[in-house]
Amino acid sequence: VQLQASGGGSVLAGDSLSLSCVVSGRTFSTYGVAWFRQAPGEEREFVAALRPTSSTKYYGDSVKGRFTISRDNAKNTFYLQMINLRPEDTGNYLCAAGTPILSTMRFPTGYRYWGQGTLVTVSS
Fold it and tell me: How far is residue 67 from each of residues 7, 80, 112, measured CA to CA in Å?
């Protein structure tokens, strides 16, 4: 299974960006998916997650109300729509897929497969 993230860029505070992650393989619809981000020198931070069989979405506290995760199983792709970006949203955004249980959905250890990330830079 391979993941390819795209859509990052350099924007100003208040702007919007949409990230995509294409997942190879035939079992995408069975995977939980997530976005994490990592700033230089910082630990990986949970951003958003979506389970395979539920419409319930999970978000980190700092992005609630501004970011939206979604998926299109027909395209083996999931997305992160980001609005009202802030400088503190700057980081390498990593997409992940796997079979996490509910208690591990917000943690990197819950995901087996990872993309290389796409860089988001937000300037004030």
Answer: 14, 7, 23
